Amino acid sequence: MRALVFSSEGTLSLEERPTPVPGYKEVLVETAAVGICGTDVHVLDGEFEGTEFPLVPGHEATGTIRAVGDGVNEGVFDFHVGDRVAINPSKTCGECEFCVNGHQNLCRFWDGLGVVSSDGAAQQLFVAPAGNVYKLKPETDLFEAALIEPLACAIRGWDILPRRLGDHVLVYGSGTMGLLMAQLGRRAGAATVTIVDLNEDRLQTAAECGIDLRYTTPDDAARDKWDVVIDCTGNIRAIEDALTRVKPAGYFQDFGVAPSDRTAQFSPFRVYRDELTIVGSMAVHNSFGRAVELFEAGAINARAMISHSFTLDDYADALAMFRAGHGRKLQVRPNDTESRVLIG
Ligand SMILES: [Zn+2]
Ligand SMILES: [Zn+2]
Hints:
Layout: E1 2-8, E2 11-16, E3 26-35, H1 38-44, E4 61-68, E5 84-87, E6 90-91, H2 97-100, E7 111-112, E8 125-129, E9 133-135, H3 148-159, E10 168-172, H4 176-187, E11 192-196, H5 200-208, E12 213-215, E13 226-231, H6 236-243, E14 246-254, H7 268-273, E15 277-280, H8 288-296, H9 302-305, E16 306-310, H10 315-323, E17 329-332, E18 340-341
Parallel strand pairs: 10-11, 10-13, 11-12, 13-14, 14-15, 16-17
Antiparallel strand pairs: 1-2, 3-4, 3-8, 3-17, 4-5, 5-9, 6-7, 16-18
Helix pairs in contact: 3-4, 3-8
One zinc ion is lined by residues 92-93, 95-96, 98-99, 107-109.
């Protein structure tokens, strides 16, 4: 079996490895697709706290169950060889202060498949705890369904925002997360959803996802303040600008991942005077099952969002393309024999 391995900080290699064996309450999954995202780049660059090399990356995965370990079906699960599944990568300790108080996504010992110490899905087969596995319908496209994991993160984002019918929502960044937050905003009952991105090509994807108000700067929009403003860029200048666009009593969500050593400036007076609320959102939290349901209900235009697929051999090309900001969502298909351009 072939596996893409981050062997040390900044170094990746393709390795032949024995087929993993699922342990107690684990399943073996043959990978269909695994999305590439900024987290993979942070992990490879050694910027993700706690990563242990060597590590197989890949946390946005779908596949087909090929073996079921002991004890899997003794409780509530009913998993069998041939089931088509999506995998929640988050593993939590269940014991720390945050786990026992219902904030498992903030677990002090948080591990993510392909992120910290457990191998991920950028390999032909991988092992996942049964509790992280979600069955998909037979008609669900396994390649497109690799968007379920980022969708689960976006649902977590909306879980901690007010969802008042008729709100006006502004999203910074028309990449994968911005597109998901914007599409969910429409579902959540916003009167308008505006998306801004400096890159016109990315705004075209937003158009295909049904987001009508698209600008390279919010200065061009018909309004100057929004009830909910969400940054999905992690860019400090975007974040500073976004905070000035929040209506009194409104919310700003810091969703994009800014570099951990950077700071942003804002007016504390405005936060006080206008009762602004600033919230963060970290990964998946009780949202994976709903992401499966919303995905299968057609809540997002997955076809418009994925532009390229890569074989394991071309993994480095995928990362280079991601770093260059080209294409839409990129994914790796470890069992495919050729890399493909899905949207040119
Ligand atoms: Zn991701
Ligand atoms: Zn914990």
